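Example record used in the benchmark description.
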Amino acid sequence: MAKHDVLLLNANYEPLNVCNIRRAVGLLLMGKAEVVTESGRSLNTSGGELLVPSIVRMRYQVRRPIPQLRLSRHSILARDNYTCQYCGSTKDLTIDHVIPRWVGGPGTWENLVTCCRKCNLKKGDKTPQQAGMKLRKVPKRPHYVPYLSLPKYLRALEREDWSEFLPQFSEFRQIGQTVS
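Model output (structure tokens):
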């Protein structure tokens, strides 16, 4: 997460999104949001100097449907901390079906893992047992992360000033400290 990103909270302090400075300042100028925390940096504008917000809160409650955590390549990579689940490599990553598709392996949270190309070639169209490989951890669907996508949530955990406004899930505690 870039240092110039801004955490956008709903009126009840629930995280809504991560936006850029331009969007946050626009919401502030229109009177739709208020500053919760400033970043300590300033921005020169035609009207003078403006303190850059780190966290802004909507002045009214934004009603939106409860989002579902989407199964996507980015979500699988984020869930697995951008690490091959067979050898631990963080380079040249792809997605692997633990139980191959040709055997009926589904495209689900429980059957997809992050895998480096080397391990993917070694495993081929076999199960990990047939290929003599072992998963580092059993893949599973992450807990629901309100309003933020999983990759955004994990990057947001790096921001110390945002941590008190983000829901805490024990399965991501150590991951959020190492994601870059």
